[in-house]
Amino acid sequence: MTPRLVEVRQNVLKHNDEVARALRERFHASGVFVISLVSSPGSGKTTFLERTLTLLQPAYRVAALVGDLATENDARRLARSRAPVRQIVTGTLCHLEAAMVENALEGWSPGELDFLFIENVGNLVCPSSYDLGEDLRLILVSVTEGEDKPLKYPTIFNTSDVTIVSKMDLAEAAEFDWQALESNIQAVRPGMRVLRVSAKTGQGMDEWLEWLTALRSSAARLPGQ
Amino acid sequence: MTPRLVEVRQNVLKHNDEVARALRERFHASGVFVISLVSSPGSGKTTFLERTLTLLQPAYRVAALVGDLATENDARRLARSRAPVRQIVTGTLCHLEAAMVENALEGWSPGELDFLFIENVGNLVCPSSYDLGEDLRLILVSVTEGEDKPLKYPTIFNTSDVTIVSKMDLAEAAEFDWQALESNIQAVRPGMRVLRVSAKTGQGMDEWLEWLTALRSSAARLPGQ
Fold first, then answer.
1. Minimal Cβ distance to B40: which of A8, A41, A173
2. Does A204 touch chain B (CB under 8 A)?
């Protein structure tokens, strides 16, 4: 990048960080736990999120924001869960920014929610640098993508908290090598938690939701949260 | 984006177009046919390219450039084809630019090649706007990514010439819907050629290579090429 482009980009990031910080304070004050999702296009974020919203709803108040370049398809798919969903259309932008989340929340009261999910644009590069004020960032990797993704996209793994290995139902057909992926994740981000799921068959979804709801409960008990 | 960021970005793109134009003239003058590949991370570009290089080599002189953020893994994989391969490490940049291609070619004589392949960074957004001087841009979509990708990433489909549907060996396991993908491609880019392959089983590779070599022959006969 040219030095001027770097400078302008740094200002954009600094502004984003300020908006994200304000968002995070607002989320904490109102008691909503916020989870963002990043991945390649086609890793199964929307299917995983639809299933998560559906399974959480009997007990929790949930909602979702979903970012996409050009369509509202994902919002329509997620709406089948009957949770409130809003689409953020980013145009040519390959990531969400905190200000877009802030705008999309207009008229909503986060205090009425237990969980808010934010599905980012499908991209393993651009979303890395943009804090959205979330409590937890998930990175999804499907078993069909190859086990080398953490090594090839280390920054986004480093800015994420948990890896969700998706499409486990295709593991055998894709000759998925669990040991290789796990060791590549740990090489890039030692100690990272990794969960394996299939949103299609339901495999691993109970474990994921138990872990998530426990995390929310313990976060709520922390001073200053 | 801020107006200033838009302005700086337009200057970067204008400069890229100039470098790409010069590259294209140089490629045409030396008779090398240049193909670039774009896709999501994990769509199978490297496996497809390794197989393509291997199958073309008995009859043609081939080489490849491969872009990645952080590793030289893909260059190592492609080197198994015994074709000359060079890695371009892009750092945090989510696409290749024409100047990177120009630099990577230093010391190579394109006139000694029949085909040059350029594998872009895995990304369905960033590479759209950057001309690399190629004759043909392929977009790969694997059967496991979902049939909605053309609707969600229309710009990159519009700047590509051919869609390669990859990992056809997983089509049944993934419940891939060929009609849905084909109709979404045609909705975004009417008349686009679509080829279905599995680099793993070899399905569709003959058809792809016959088509590619015929295209190169006819391009060589065009005046001004």
1. A41
2. no
**Exposure b/e, B20-43, CB count within 10 A at least 16 = b:** beebbeebbeeebbbbbbbbbbbb
pLDDT in tens, B162-190: 999 999 999 999 999 999 999 999 999 99
Instruction: To the nearest 10°, report the CA torsion of B121, B122, B128, B132.
Output: 30
Residue A5: its chain B contacts at CB < 8 A?
Answer: 5, 8-9, 12
Q: What is the largest CA-CA distance in chain A?
A: 52
Residue B78 maps to which CATH number? 3.40.50.300
Which structural domain range is residue A98 located in? 2-220
The rounded distance, in Å, linking the Cα atoms of B185 and A74 is 18
Question: Is some CB atom of chain B closer than 8 A to the CB atom of A125?
Answer: yes
Cα distance from B111 to chain A (closest Cα, Å)?
30
Q: What are the chain A neighbours of B144 within 8 Å (beta carbons)?
A: 42, 142, 144, 167, 170, 174
Phi, psi of A50, deg, nearest 5: -60, -45
Provide φ and ψ at A106, rounded to 5°.
Answer: -55, 130
Chain B: residue whose CA lies nearest to A42? B145
ipTM: 0.84
Interface test with A, best of B45, B97, B124 (most A CBs within 10 A): B124
Spacing of C-alpha A85 from chain mean position: 15
Whole-number Å distance between alpha carbons of B124 and B38:
7
Tokens for A205, please give them.
């979804």
A31 Cα to chain B: minimum distance (Å): 31
pLDDT in tens, A23-81: 999 999 999 999 999 999 999 999 999 999 999 999 999 999 999 998 899 999 999 99
Determine, yes or no, domain membership for B225: no
Residue B32 lies in a domain: yes
